[in-house]
Amino acid sequence: MGFILKIIITGIVALVLAQFFPGVTIDGISSAILLALVLAILNAVVRPILVLLTIPITFLTLGLFLLVINAIILYMADYLLDGFNISGLLTAILFSLVLSIVTAIIDAIF
């Protein structure tokens, strides 16, 4: 699947998921697509650094700390974007988990 199509689909999925999570707000489709683009950039640049720095914690928690790293990436996106807001660590963890699962399923289908 092309990069642009994947960004658009991820943005639409994030917009739909925001309706189900009370602590997540996305202003519109343009904010959702911009969120998907920012998440792609943060996952490509910042996430590997965070994973490398937290290898001991990740090892001790049997990989569960990666969920916290995903939440940190979402908080960074919240800080960078005006049209996206997330409140609460548990909401961020659950939103990132569901977003990852749904986009993985869509990638597998297409």
Automatic annotation (TrEMBL):
Task: Provide this UniProt record's keywords sorted from A to Z.
Answer: Membrane, Transmembrane, Transmembrane helix
**Entry keyword Transmembrane:** yes
Q: Which residues cross the membrane?
A: 28-46, 53-77, 89-109
What InterPro entries does the annotation carry?
Phage_holin_4_2
Q: Which PANTHER family does this chain map to?
A: SLR0284 PROTEIN (PTHR37309:SF1)
Protein name (Swiss-Prot/TrEMBL): Phage holin family protein
Organism of provenance: Rufibacter sediminis
